[in-house]
Hints:
The protein is mainly α. It has one domain: Tetracycline Repressor, domain 2. The chain contains 14 helices and no strands. It has helices at 2-7, 10-16, 18-28, 34-58, 60-66, 93-114, 116-134, 142-161, 167-192, 194-199, 205-229, 241-266, 269-280, 282-296. Helix 7 runs antiparallel to helix 8 (142-161), helix 11 runs antiparallel to helix 12 and helix 12 (241-266) runs antiparallel to helix 14 (282-296). It is globular. 47% of the residues are buried.
Amino acid sequence: MKKFFALSRTTHGILDLAAPGFCAVLWLGHFPPWQTIVLSLFTAFAAYTATYALNDLVGTATDKEKFAGGINAGYSVEASALRYPLARNVLDGRSGWIWFASWFIVALAGSYLLNPAIVVILVSASALEVMYCLLLKVTYLRTLVSGLVKSSGPIAAVFVVDRSPSAYLLLLVFAWVFFWEIGGQNIPADWNDTAEDKRVNAKTIPIRFGTEKAGLIILCALALTVLTSTFLPVISPTKLGVLYLLASVTAGSLLLLKPAYQLCRLRKGVQAATLFDNASYYPLAQLAIISIFVILK
């Protein structure tokens, strides 16, 4: 099973579950019923497992070109020795597609049970993921598509706990996730893969603009993430107060802004990987903070 979980980047996928969890608790101001939590966790796990697998399935041919000269060191949250099993011929494509389809069907079923509207979000996110992969050699603006895909999980979580959410508050959630994904995940990942991406003439922000400008874009995106997070308490029916805001901004400063500043200053691949790792834990930190405040209210 290790090669299948490597295909789906399961360690990273599990960390990603924190963002929808945080948004659901924030939106409600308390924890949902345990039945909803269990079904939501299982559905979200299936959705992330399928989506990450889809990424590698669609990009197999390009990945084989990219890593013909070897695979980079990666990140601590994706340090499996079996990374990119399709590109390395550790796993065959037919098995990969069966794996994806199985989890996708489970995710569709769970989504329908939670709220049929989530089915639309899931299908749309999958289509956008395919588009994201196909745009690798076309335009660096694909990073914006990545922000849309990653935002779909937290948006879906809101629809689990509220069948007719405010569009304005949804936009706030979207902006928070969107800027975090672009500055903390997508561009740092592309930065870490620069040598491999150049082999296939990929269009990414670090390649298009160079490391100095890419670093500034990252820092601006993450500054917007932290700034947006200061407005998130207006979503919650629970008055979270100054202590919550201080804890939230501190998490953003340590996990996002500090490593982003180091990357801008030193402009080395190891700093990009460090930022990616730290940013991967940011939603988990936010979930832990909101959980403490909700429990103690």
